[in-house]
Amino acid sequence: MYLFDASAVVNLVKRGSLKPFIRGATLDLAVYESLNAIWKEHKMLSRIDLETARTFVEILKGLFDSIPLESVKGYETEVFELASKEGLTVYDAAYLYVAMKDGLTLVSD
Predict the structure, then answer these.
(1) Residue 107 dihedral angles phi and psi, to the nearest 5°
(2) pTM recorded for the entire structure
(3) Which of these, 25, 31, 58, 82, could form a disulfide with 68 (CB 3.0-4.6 Å)?
(4) Domain boundary assignment for the chain
(5) Which CATH class is domain 2-107?
């Protein structure tokens, strides 16, 4: 089973490649990170138009309704310690911690 970080989620959705998610999960954090990435590409970088952004948001909504969303609730200390030890952001450490804890393969772009 795979744990997809937000960058992998967004890039796979933009490519129209949803099949990999059949054996995957992500963090609840990915909902916010993915939506923010789409907003940024539309509003700040002007890479995608509003309709395309809306389409991606709808696809993401369906995806997040369909795959398990893991959480680091209850593991805040462990995530913080991992981030500090490895020199990672807390966001990245959250994905890494859950992948290690649950024996998942972390997928990141």
Answers:
(1) -115, 120
(2) 0.94
(3) 25
(4) 2-107
(5) alpha beta
List the end-to-end C-alpha distance of the chain, in Å, as a whole number: 17
For 55-68, the pLDDT digits (tens) are 999 999 999 999 99
Distance CA 88, CA 94 (A): 9
Contact 24, 70 (CB under 8 A): no
For the beta carbon of residue 94, count every other beta carbon within 10 angstroms: 26
Residue percentage of the chain with pLDDT more than 70: 100
Question: Which residues make Cβ contacts (< 8 Å) with residue 86, sequence separation at least 6?
Answer: 93, 96
Check residue 46 and give its pLDDT: 98
CA distance 5 to 60: 13
Torsional class of 16: left (φ above 0), alpha (ψ -120 to 50), beta (otherwise): left
Backbone angles phi, psi at 4, to 5 degrees: -95, 130
